C-alpha cells in the first residue's frame, strides 16, 4: 500500500499543525483530491522498524525512543538514542539526523 502526503513542506506543515486531514482518491496512477484545494501530493515511503529509515523523508509513526544516525563531526560516534515527540526530536535540534529505526532487542536487553 502506498500512502500519500502533500508535496510542499510548508503547506503540509500548516495542514498538520491545524489538524486538517485531506482525502484522496487514487485511480490509474492519477490522484484526485477530495478537497477544493489545488495542492500537489507525493507518495511517501512506509516506515519499516527493522531498517534505517531516511529522515525527513520518513517520519517516526508514533512518539517514543528510536535509534538514530546523525552527524556531528567525523570523529564522533554517529549513533544515538533520541526521543521523537510527534513533531520533532527532543534535545537533538543541533544535530543533523539522517536516519532512524526501532531500537533493536539486543540493545534494549542491555539497558
Task: Decide which structural class fits the backbone.
Answer: mainly beta
How many strands, which pairing sense, and closed or not: the largest β-sheet?
Answer: 5 strands, antiparallel
Question: What's the number of helices?
Answer: 2
Tally of extended strands? Answer: 9
Average pLDDT figure: 79
Query: How large is the share of residues in beta strands?
Result: 35-45%
Shape: globular
Q: Please trace the helix and strand order, writing H or E for each element.
A: EHEEEEEEEEH
Radius of gyration: 17 Å
CA-to-CA gap between the ends? 35 Å
- Fraction in helix: 10-25%
Low-confidence stretches: none
How would you write the strand order of the largest sheet? 5-9-6-7-8
Draw up the topology in text.
Blueprint: E1 3-6, H1 9-17, E2 24-27, E3 30-33, E4 41-44, E5 53-54, E6 64-71, E7 79-84, E8 89-90, E9 96-101, H2 105-108
Antiparallel strand pairs: 1-4, 2-3, 5-9, 6-7, 6-9, 7-8
